[in-house]
Design brief:
Blueprint: H1 3-8, H2 13-27, H3 43-46, H4 51-57, E1 61-71, H5 78-84, E2 92-105, E3 109-112, H6 114-117, E4 122-126, E5 132-141, E6 146-151, E7 174-179, E8 187-198, E9 209-212, E10 224-227, E11 232-239, E12 250-254, H7 255-266, E13 279-283, H8 286-292, E14 300-305, H9 310-313, E15 321-325, E16 328-329, H10 333-343, E17 348-355, E18 358-365, E19 378-379, E20 389-393, H11 396-402, E21 410-415, H12 420-423, E22 431-435, E23 438-439, H13 443-449, E24 456-463, E25 466-473
Antiparallel strand pairs: 1-2, 1-4, 2-3, 3-6, 4-5, 5-6, 7-8, 7-10, 8-9, 9-12, 10-11, 11-12, 13-14, 14-15, 15-16, 15-17, 17-18, 19-20, 20-21, 21-22, 22-23, 22-24, 24-25
Length: about 475
Amino acid sequence: MDIDMLRDNRAPAWAVISLSLLTVFAQSGLASADDTRVVPTSVQQVQLSFAEVVRKAAPAVVNIYSKRTVRSAFGEDALFKKFFGERQGGGERVQSALGSGVIVRADGIIVTNNHVIEGADEIVVALADRREFEAKVVLADERTDLAILRVNTGGKPLPFLTFHDSDQAEVGDLVLAIGNPFGVGQTVTSGIISALARTQAGISDYGFFIQTDAAINPGNSGGALLTVDGKLVGINTAIYSRSGGNIGIGFAIPANMVKLVVDTAAGGGRQLARPWLGMGTQDVTSDVARSLGLDRPVGVIVKELTAGGPAEQAGLERGDVITKIDGFEVNDGQTLRFRAATKGVGNTVILTYLRKSETRTASLKLARPPENPPRNVTQIDGHNPLEGATVANLSPAYAEELQVEQTSGVIVVELSRKGIAARLGMRPGDIIAEVNNRKITSVDVLKEAVKANPDRWELTVNRGGRTLRVSVSD
């Protein structure tokens, strides 16, 4: 249909302008007939609605109300009663939270964000048709910020959404966001995928997000990000905002990670099994890229290997630069961890890496992190600077549990407030490297080291990548 015919049919001016631009796109080859993603080519197509997609998908998006009882720090002070009302049970009050969720199985499996239900004493799921169910937490994973709930439907199937392969999503794809922003009720917004593989958002440990400009606001957390064919491509989880409201930068957890957590919970798992690669890595910066002869920063450098671990068994060496995993480009350590996690324990990934400018590949089998040595949690007593500290052996499994990068050595896990260690400024997470120049490799070695009673103690502690040295005179 040409522009003159559109004018004769009294088409709106914006449609004429849009179709003029589309003509330019078509002539430039940007709108190929072979593409599966196409732009509108007529006024009728421009005026198409998402209503049918929303009508089918909306019943599977739910509102979530969670409550928890907290003790007030203000006791029965009359001033605080004036502002917060009478308390229940001697200083206790109830905190409520609102969020969204998505039904992903007809038997009542619902996915939401962990931060929506964290610490809740009671969780109520309200469907679009106003039915309400009490929900139980099946699996809660803080590191992915995902939680899986189950409701008892009495055998009646619920509407649910199917997963879209989030690896097939592309920047520019149209998407819809459905949730319960600010508790006003179910709301639908539209936009596009603005970016993929956002790893620097600082939202969760396994940060690898879909960015969208579809309006997402507080209360949308846990809601659905949909493709235009009504499939779940992500779970909305956070926004970037200085005001607390939407400014067009929202983040969603990709559906492939969501599906992994859902499958774990549906299979009876209480915790997501995370693969262990058996290596430590360092991101390639611009300076490092130049020193390696790379034309741009890409990949991660293998900086350490665990003896007998998956990476060493795959033939990797220190200094190798991993550039791809299963064909997907690796830009940082978070990308590598995300791709390994979504592949799953027991499966094999293909790593592409550079060694002295030569491109190689390796097959690496993803394993569970071993707890070797056993953690041997021990409280240190006696007349020494570590008195009152509870310590444990690090292992790949325990390091994963504690979310620390170092996988060997002795870590402080707890401190007695009245102990000497706490008064010296020790913190949970500190790794004790040396005591009086003796290298500390295990809890047993530490116990032997603190039996001495010198006039002066010298401690070397690793804290968040920094090395601290403490001298204590008796």
